Amino acid sequence: MIKFVAAAIWLCAVAIGAVFYSFQNAEAKLDAPAPLPLMGGLDSIKTDIVSVPVVRDGRIDGYFLARLVYAIESQKLAKLSVPPEALIVDQVYSYVYGNPDLDFSDRETLDLDVFRAGVRDKINEKVGDELIHEVLVEQVDFLSKEEIRDNTIRRRLQAGQTAREMAKGFKEH
User: Fold this and answer.
1) How far apart are CA 136 and CA 138, in angstroms?
2) Which domain of life does this protein belong to (predicted)?
3) Residue 126 lies in a domain
4) Do 2 and 50 belong together in one domain?
5) For residue range 51-63, what is the model confidence (pLDDT) as tens digits?
6) 22 with 45, same domain?
7) What is the pLDDT of residues 82-119, one digit of tens each?
């Protein structure tokens, strides 16, 4: 009988100790600062592909294509009176046209960090506040006029071949 009483007291002491320990551990977790989410809790806006014609010496050399993601504060985003995508695309156009020294055709000299910082600064300057914190590049391409022309001819030839194959298939049946 004494063994049962001692075992019961021991079980109660272990249970009380476990409850006490769990409460102490829970308080320590509440007192610890919460980890910051990536990019400090900023929202992101992803644009569609922006296609900007690159004009040199009064003629179009090609097209700059970009899909960008912007890290933006949600409170400031809610205060905008224009759609943010329209503002962003407008400023990308303004930045590309306003910087004739950007040479998209030479991939080795194109500095993406300078491009991202320039677009960010141009948007923040337009808004008059630090709206955009970071510009992330999802896709950047430059297509010259020759590449576009070659792709168009190739598509037409493929479409013509497909039409001929379909017509041939109809004749056989």
Assistant:
1) 6
2) Bacteria
3) yes
4) no
5) 888 777 778 888 8
6) no
7) 888 888 888 888 888 777 677 776 667 778 888 888 88
